[in-house]
Amino acid sequence: MAVRLEILARSSEHHARLGRIHTPHGTFDTPAFMPVATAAAMKGLTPAQVRSTGSQCILNNTLHCMLRPGTERIARFGSSHAFMRWDGPILTDSGGFQAFSLADLRTLDDDGVTFQSFVDGSRVRLTPEVSIRAQNEIGADIIMAFDDCPPAGPDVPASRVRQAMLRSVDWLARCKRAHGRPDAQALFGIVQGGTDLVLRRESAERTCAMELPGYAIGGVAVGESPERIAEIVRHTAPLLPDDRPRYLMGVGYPRDIAIAVAAGVDMFDCVLPTRNGRNALAFTRAGTLRLRNARFADDSEPIEAGCDCETCAGGFSRAYLRHLFQAGEMLGPTLVSLHNVRLYQRLMLDIRRAIGCNRWSSLAQAWPCLSAAPGETSGESE
Amino acid sequence: MAVRLEILARSSEHHARLGRIHTPHGTFDTPAFMPVATAAAMKGLTPAQVRSTGSQCILNNTLHCMLRPGTERIARFGSSHAFMRWDGPILTDSGGFQAFSLADLRTLDDDGVTFQSFVDGSRVRLTPEVSIRAQNEIGADIIMAFDDCPPAGPDVPASRVRQAMLRSVDWLARCKRAHGRPDAQALFGIVQGGTDLVLRRESAERTCAMELPGYAIGGVAVGESPERIAEIVRHTAPLLPDDRPRYLMGVGYPRDIAIAVAAGVDMFDCVLPTRNGRNALAFTRAGTLRLRNARFADDSEPIEAGCDCETCAGGFSRAYLRHLFQAGEMLGPTLVSLHNVRLYQRLMLDIRRAIGCNRWSSLAQAWPCLSAAPGETSGESE
């Protein structure tokens, strides 16, 4: 198998596990947060800056890479690692979620999805086989099954959710057959089923029967409440094999991550730290700061006192950061994204320490934001 | 005096000098190229990245800093060094050139200029006293006289050029009287006179009579041909005191810089490496590359083989850089600006070596772009 989970410690307080995942491009510590480098680039950050945040594994979005620069182009460079100059582990999504969420015009059938390219308006056909071939070309260490991912909400009929779940299982079998490089790239299955816990169980059973090197919980953070996400995760995570990585896709706020870790999830990705960073919203242990706010105009404090990120430790004040955003300077998005990604990685460091020491309560003390009211959900691409 | 030029060597081939300029925030080697951090920020580059290019002294634009964030705000942080976290030497322009070149609505009289803010449309009055107070608040190591800088060209009457020259001399005296911190900030005078060499001589005599710690050649790169710039510089530089820094404002292309160094100029600033970098135009020793060009789509070479910048040495290919610009990724402007500024600093390193070794001819061999057809002129702000 291309990747292997090594469990180093287990919490005695709940289901959290401390470990590391070995991949062809090195090892990353778990529970892990993976920032999103959508089109084979982290927005506003060089790979060296991403590395400086403590990030060990990053995510590329297959659909973006297909449309621009083209996955066959990336393949000519060997893989995304060589193309974007990131020598650590990379994970790619399947493109399915983005085809559903980004494309205005799309048609879905049992074979795949057809949609209009947001780059040039051309017609693009995505099937399990097309997605896997694209992911083989990108060459990430972990690749994801192409799944049918309907939105959540009361207006989505139960029959549609069940159809999507069964179709995803069917497509997973096709993905597995199409996967040309199982020794170099680990294919993860994705559990669907919406907010229906019975469907989630059936999906987990059918998905895990495929004997894959890792499993994801998909179809969350697509419109449900944070309480609903927590319920689904707490229900689904224990249904996945204990000895394989568990990945909660596209989640989320620090509080969502902490809850999922306690339920036994190992991997997370989210665009929040970078997308919010570009919009002058800074994360802190206590909550968020809107740096465009006039009250920061003469504030000489860093975003968060004691933070070891390049922005805070470098002495950049809230007043200066506000100025950069007011003046439309690119440096503002860069400096706040740097801080936000480091904040997430500091959270993951503290989570890993709390698991190792069986002191989960200390985590809540150091991170007041974990006790705050739940945040909104968030999608999985930039 | 706040700054002092130390001459370490002189070319036996022409008028070039090798030296260093001592300032309250450290020393920089001359001939020096100063990249432009317009609004107290280098576009797309952190101070650490700017430092990595070998840049030692940078420029802030006073007018931008006045309008946003406000120079009194910078003063509350001590100076621009503290505000933008650049601990090396800084130079500020007077704001005059920008008021003339950026503002649509302006009125000029013997006392100063009134124009409309490009930030909020408000009426702004700039006089020698206002400019110097603003520059005192920014706190740069070198500050510039507020001058009347008319455009060049056949449609500008000689009487207007003479008026501007005499007015600039009058304003220089007012700047000197208004300057509150001569021990901490060196006020440089600016020689005007357009393309009229007789006026240039008169301006140099009147300006140098003020006994200032340094002198600039202004009013070039405002529309003249490169040959005309060279003629003005060769005529004017020897008229300035040998023991003081000589600064050619807003110039320019590598070839323009090399010509001016040979005429005895010590300091340069220009937005070309960063502005062009943001627009996918990369400098090399041999010339420029338009990285959006389709011929780079699969080009695995760096911008320039052997370049030691973070972009080239980091292995980022022309194909990847092209992709970043095609996809609108901020990382493209950052990586190409990094390269371009480093390219300029490598040129200055080679220029300093060529002076020290009296081997100017070796410079032309290593830098084919210096023998190429002259480039266009360029303004002095981002």
List the helices and strands and how they pair.
The structure is a homodimer of 382-residue chains.
Chain A: E1 4-10, E2 17-23, E3 26-30, E4 32-34, H1 47-52, E5 58-60, H2 62-67, H3 71-76, H4 80-84, E6 90-92, H5 96-102, E7 106-108, E8 113-116, E9 123-126, H6 128-138, E10 142-144, H7 158-178, E11 186-191, H8 197-208, E12 214-217, H9 226-236, E13 246-248, H10 254-262, E14 267-269, H11 272-278, E15 281-283, E16 288-290, H12 310-313, H13 318-326, H14 331-356, H15 360-366
Parallel strand pairs in A: 4-14, 5-6, 6-10, 10-11, 11-12, 12-13, 13-14
Antiparallel strand pairs in A: 1-2, 2-3, 7-8, 8-9, 15-16
Helix pairs in contact in A: 6-7, 7-8, 9-10, 11-14, 13-14, 14-15
Helices of chain A, by number, come to: 15
Taking Cα atoms only, what radius of gyration of chain A do you get, to the nearest Å?
20 Å
| Counted beta strands of chain A | 16
The N- and C-terminal alpha carbons of chain A lie at a distance of 30 Å
Q: Which fold does the CATH topology of the largest domain in chain A refer to?
A: TIM Barrel
Strand content of chain A: 15-25%
Uncertain regions spanning at least 5 consecutive residues of chain A: 375-382
Oligomer kind: homodimer
The number of domains of chain A is 2
